[in-house]
């Protein structure tokens, strides 16, 4: 990996790096993303989304089996088949990131995305579970939701089916141990819990993480330092951030979902009438691209202040799309975030914007 850009561009980036206060990480989930991120100067992974890993054609059968099984035993059977895949996913990322922080977000798909829909898929799952096709169809109907983005997703999955998060956490720690044993430099995984709305959800999932971590350390005779934090992507989480901070080592603002829930605007259908609203001046700009300072931004500021009041060393970052938007990065600097995380290709822009943000706020020291 060539971790530096070349020529005048590289010089400009070095100047920016000398000035900026916020770190710049990348959203990356594949080895190619991670390599690209490093090439553009990312200082870690700020968001590794794990859902796409489950859609791999080699795994989707086991994933459907996991979702459709009606017993914990059935789910565990499917999860044991997924564990080696997940371990390999994280091992590759840890090796490429070579000791830089890697934030892994536990599973956060709307559950329905994993359901079998075609007749042939339902028959396949029925056969692998030894179940009746009619029963499987009923289960698909039971698990389907009218509003999946506000439904059974995020940590709600980990709370209702703890064995799913247990598998992922085991894969993370087994991969971290293996990297540590091979290289002598163990990664410091940051395990991130999605869609938290109450402190209790975080307490429950955090306890699961700690339990599995201790099991892996006992089995391997190797200890890994790690952190557990939460996405702040629901208004309630932002408003109760002081309480939530008591159970979190870090917050990462998920401004995609936060924008969706603050505006009551579907992020998946935003293209339908939003451009008209922007054209007519009803909204000054697309809030999914640039942070809406008065609404979403106010919640980010409240959560940052409350979180830090409760826990002064709380690490704060952002991993929504806004983390790669220069105007939003300025805002992030003004509320004291420690890092922004964006698409690998936006990392250079973010490095520059972070430097401009530091200059605008009279900063310039590089201590974060
Ligand atoms: C977010 O909601 O801002 C976020 C980063 O998570 P996702 O886009 O995966 O929901
Ligand atoms: Mg989200």
Protein model, in words:
This protein has 368 residues and is an alpha/beta fold. The protein has 17 helices and eight strands. It has an eight-stranded parallel barrel, surrounded by six helices. α10 links the parallel β4 and β5. α2 packs parallel to α5 and α5 runs parallel beside α9 (162-183). The longest helix is centred in the first third of the chain and has 26 residues, at 72-97. It is globular and about 65 Å long. The two termini are 25 Å apart. The relative contact order is 0.14. Phosphoenolpyruvate binds at residues 47, 49, 233, 254-257, 319-320.
How is the topology of this model organized?
Layout: H1 7-19, E1 23-27, H2 31-39, E2 45-49, H3 51-54, H4 60-68, H5 72-97, E3 102-105, H6 119-129, H7 133-143, H8 155-160, H9 162-183, E4 189-193, H10 199-220, E5 227-232, H11 235-239, H12 241-245, E6 250-253, H13 255-263, H14 274-279, H15 293-310, E7 315-318, H16 326-334, E8 339-342, H17 347-360
Parallel strand pairs: 1-2, 1-8, 2-3, 3-4, 4-5, 5-6, 6-7, 7-8
Helix pairs in contact: 1-17, 2-5, 4-5, 4-6, 5-9, 6-7, 9-10, 16-17
The structure holds phosphoenolpyruvate and magnesium ion.
Magnesium ion binds near residues 233, 254, 256 and 257.
